[in-house]
C-alpha cells in the first residue's frame, strides 16, 4: 500500500446568494447559462446514501452516462481489499441493471495512480462510480494524482460521477467521517474530499444508523458549510447548483441560516423534492412550484 497522505483541513469559503438566476425544473430540466457557486459547472453527480438497491438510482446513473453501452468505470478502492478485478461481486448489480461496458479501476499505490497507463480508462469514461467503504482510502490513493485530474475531466466532458456511502462523502469538499481509526468521528484526520460540491459536507446512512444529529457537531465548527445527509437507498441528482431527490427515503439539509419550526436545526427532503445549493432554498413539486413548508430564514439560536 502506498504512503498514507493526510490533507490538512482547508478554510471553507462562505457560500452566499447566487446573483445569476438559475432555471430550476424537474429531473432532466436544462439549466440556464450560469456560473455555478457550489456544484459542477458541467456534468452530473449522483450522490447515494449507501445500501444502494433502487432500480431508479441505477437506471438514472446509466442513462446519464449514455445508456447501457456507455463506458462506466467503477472504483471499489474504499472497500479496502488489496485487489479487485472483473470477478468483483459489486459488478453484478450494475450488469443486472443493464450496464454492458464496465471497467474496474483500483490501486492503493499513489505512484501507480499517477501513471498514464492506469488512468487510460478514465480518458474515455462517460461515467464513474465510487463504491462504499472508508473514504480516507480514496484520498490516500488518488488525491493529487493524475487519477484525480482525469476524474474531474469526466465531469468537464459532460459525464456523470457518483458514489455510495463513503463514495458519496468523497464528492464533497469537507470529508465527513474521514478518520483512519473509526468512521464514528465526523471530523477526523482526513478532512478534504474531492470537492465536486464546494462548501458542502455529505453524510450517509443517516437515518438507518441514527446519525442524523452528528452533522450538528461539524456545523458548530464550520458554520459556513452546507450539510447534506442522505439515508440509505436515496440519492440526489446534482446539475449545477440544483439537485433533485430520488430513491426510497430522505435527504436531510443542515443550514445554520435556516431554522425549522421553533428551534429545528435540520429538515427533510422527500423523493421528488428539489434544492438550490447556492440560494439554499428547497422546493416541493405541486401544480405550481412553491417552497417546502415550515422552513424559516432565521439563524439557529444558541
CATH architecture: 3-Layer(aba) Sandwich
Bin the helical content: 10-25%
Number of helices: 8
Query: Oligomer, anyone?
Result: single chain
Mean pLDDT: 90
Distance between the termini: 45 Å
pLDDT < 50 stretches? 1-33
Estimate the strand proportion. 15-25%
Whole-number radius of gyration? 18 Å
Q: Which overall shape is indicated by the principal axes computed on the Cα atoms? A: globular
What is the chain-wise order of helices and strands?
EHEHEHHEHHEHEEHEEEEEEEEEE
Q: What topology, given as strand order, has the largest sheet? A: 3-2-4-5-1-9-10-14-15-16
The total tally of domains equals 1
Summarize the biggest pleated sheet: 10 strands, mixed
Instruction: State the CATH superfamily name.
Output: Class I glutamine amidotransferase (GATase) domain
- Overall structural class, as computed from helix and strand content, comes to alpha/beta
What's the CATH C level?
Alpha Beta
User: What is the third-level CATH name, the topology?
Assistant: Rossmann fold
Q: How many β-strand stretches?
A: 17
